[in-house]
Amino acid sequence: MLIESRPATDPEVDALVAAQQRELRVADGGLDGQATVVHDGIRYLVVVDGGRVVACGGVQPLDADTGELKRMYVRPAYRGRGIARQLLSALEELAFQQGHSVLCLETGSYLPAAIGLYTSGGYQPIPVYGEYVDNPYSVCFAKRLPVAA
After folding, report:
1. pLDDT digits (tens, 9 = 90+) for 96-116
2. Closest by CA position to 139, among listed 34, 62, 29, 28
3. Are 88 and 119 in contact (CB under 8 A)?
4. Where are the domains of the chain?
5. Which ranges of the sequence are coiled-coil (predicted)?
6. Which of 25, 52, 69, 137 is 20 to 30 A (C-alpha) from 126?
7. Which residues pair with 104 in a beta bridge?
8. Cβ-proximal residues to 136 (8 Å cutoff; 6+ apart), any chain
9. What is the pLDDT of residue 4?
10. pTM of the full structure
11. Alpha helix locations (H) across the chain?
C-alpha cells in the first residue's frame, strides 16, 4: 500500500470524491443526484493498493493555524483494513507540514464509523462551524497537532 499526493484535478480523485458525495447523500436521506464539488485549495492524498486508488482525503487551509480535513473516503470493499487510520495519520502529517497546529473536520451524525475513527484518533467535539452551522446532521471535531521538537 502506498500513500501519495495527487492534484484535485486527478480523475481518480474525482471518481472517489463523486462516490463519497453519492454515499453521503444516500446516507442522509438526500437524493442520489449530482452535486458540484469545489476543491478550493485542498491538497489530496490517495491510498494506492495493487495499482488501484482505494481511498482519498484532503487538507484545506482555513486560516494560518487551522486546516480542515476534507473528503475522507475509503471504497467500501477496502473498509475494515485500517486504511482510513493510516490515511488520517498521513493527512495530519500533511497539515503539520503546511504549518497548521490544529486540524478540524465535519462529519455526519449518521456516520458512527467515521465518528469512531476520529474520536479514537484524538479528535475532540467542537461547536459546528462555517458552512455546517445550519445542517442539523453535522458534527465537528478538532485535534491539536504535535509541535516540532
Report:
1. 999 999 999 999 999 999 999
2. 28
3. no
4. 2-144
5. none
6. 25
7. 68, 142
8. none
9. 97
10. 0.89
11. 11-27, 83-97, 112-120
